[in-house]
Amino acid sequence: MTSTTNLNRTFATLLLVVLVAASTLFSGTSAKVFTKCELAKELGKNGISRTFYGHWICLANAESGLNTTKVTKLANMSASYGIFQINSKEWCREGRKGGKCNMKCEDFINDNITDDIECVKKIQMQYGFNGWNLWQKKCKGKELPNISKCNV
């Protein structure tokens, strides 16, 4: 009975260590799914012209469903991160700062999207909205989200 009790205590201790480690690992990333009005406010706070809110909101909705924690692994061994699905091949680096935005890709999967917006400004300046295939398919020439009732 003593060996069974010790084994149970060891298992319970190990389980506690694993749970604490897991909660520590995931506590740095908080998930947020923005509403279109919340995203419009963030865009304005970060210097995006109101004229383009509809395009940015449509883009984010098409790419991530407005979800800040979305990560999409792609066949070319790259991945796209965050609400705007910023790609690791050109714009960021996994596990370290790099790419044209000089950012860690993992920094794009939290609920603070200020750094995401700074990076997408660079993408947009280089490629326009055509830098995102889903914008071309779901937003270009289509009716854009109506934010007239948003308090922005």
TrEMBL record:
CDD domains xrefs: LYZ_C_invert
GO molecular function: lysozyme activity
Catalytic activity of the protein: Hydrolysis of (1->4)-beta-linkages between N-acetylmuramic acid and N-acetyl-D-glucosamine residues in a peptidoglycan and between N-acetyl-D-glucosamine residues in chitodextrins
Signal sequence annotation: 1-31
Claim: Glycosyltransferase is one of the keywords in the record: no
Family to which the UniProt record says this protein belongs: Belongs to the glycosyl hydrolase 22 family.
Top-level class of the enzyme under EC nomenclature: hydrolase
Keywords of the record: Antimicrobial, Bacteriolytic enzyme, Disulfide bond, Glycosidase, Hydrolase, Signal
Superkingdom of source: Eukaryota
Name of the molecule in the record: lysozyme
GO biological process: defense response to bacterium; killing of cells of another organism
InterPro entries with a match to the protein in the record: Glyco_hydro_22 (IPR001916), Glyco_hydro_22_CS (IPR019799), Glyco_hydro_22_lys (IPR000974), Lysozyme-like_dom_sf (IPR023346)
EC numbers: 3.2.1.17
Lineage: Eukaryota, Metazoa, Ecdysozoa, Arthropoda, Hexapoda
Domain Glycosyl hydrolases family 22 (GH22): start-end pairs: 101-119
